[in-house]
């Protein structure tokens, strides 16, 4: 009978019962927090039911996730209503650890589910990382508020969200300056020139011996040393940041494309040679298609390098707009919530950019073994 017990639900029951033995806030008991106490009892009861009967169906996991959502909502309301930050007691933290055990069991049950309708299966696959991310933000919020962490050290996500919503016009101007101008221009120029030079390197053998070692040397140059030089050469506007992005994206594209062009099989090349195919026919019909996974690998790497390079380059001189300018300025003013708002914009932009490149890769390299799906 003991073997049937679900360990995560058992842990939630034990931790929930232990939480009721300690005060949820300094100087007060659970009777002063009736909503939180009722939620804790509900978590104990539901966890005890599933500890005995097991989590065997999809709706079992969904019910646990709903329970966690309700518990997290009550906890957030409680921790923000405490008179004086940093005074929540050990009972509150034990309750949240119990809630964490329930969340783990519920999300794990959804993660291993299979055999659903394809649309529902995709939603389930997307739900797992989304739920994990939201749970981490929740823990960040209650930890920052519950422990009374100073704003200059780590602002709560709620505070960052308020600053984000209240500064949309500033954030949009910074996004345009950094991403839509410097990042995209540098990315297109760097990746495009790297691709064209790789064709030349493949065509002219001595360039491979002379240019690739030089590429390794340049790619190792620190961005903090290159950025001031580019600012002196191209000025303070976005052109100097685009030049930094070109330097950072050129050689990853060059090296990956040269490696990809050599990835086609010798049998296929011999077959085309026996048909009398020219170099360019072999290149476009065989070698470039075989190199597409390597090319897209460079494009994905460069999608993140470009944004990092543009932001860091703005630290060394820029007009009074841009993500890097805003971050360096607001740090000096101790407006850390604005710094985090810029970080959120950069993270969203970088993730969306990477996702678009990955989606394009899936479209053009559907034949690759990594994208084949079982039917």
Structure explained in plain terms:
With 375 residues, the chain is mostly helical. It has two domains: 2-149; 165-371, MetI-like (MetI-like fold), CATH 1.10.3720.10. It has helices at residues 7-19, 34-53, 58-81, 90-111, 118-146, 157-166, 168-203, 205-219, 223-234, 238-261, 266-274, 279-313, 323-332, 336-364. Helix 1 (7-19) packs antiparallel against helix 2 (34-53), helix 4 (90-111) packs antiparallel against helix 5 and helix 7 packs parallel to helix 10 (238-261). The chain starts with 6 loop residues before the first helix and ends in an 11-residue tail after the last helix.
Count of alpha and pi helical runs: 14
Tell me the radius of gyration.
27 Å
- Quick one: overall form? flat
- Any idea what the CATH architecture of the largest domain is? Orthogonal Bundle
Structural class: mainly alpha
Q: Unreliable stretches, pLDDT < 50, 5 or more residues?
A: none
Major sheet: none
Cα distance, first to last residue?
A: 40 Å
Provide the β-strand percentage band: under 5%
Number of strands: 0
Helical amount: over 70%
Count of individual domains: 2
**CATH superfamily membership of the largest domain:** MetI-like
CATH topology name of the largest domain, in short, is MetI-like fold
Spell the H/E element sequence: HHHHHHHHHHHHHH
Global mean pLDDT: 86
> What is the CATH class designation of the largest domain?
Mainly Alpha
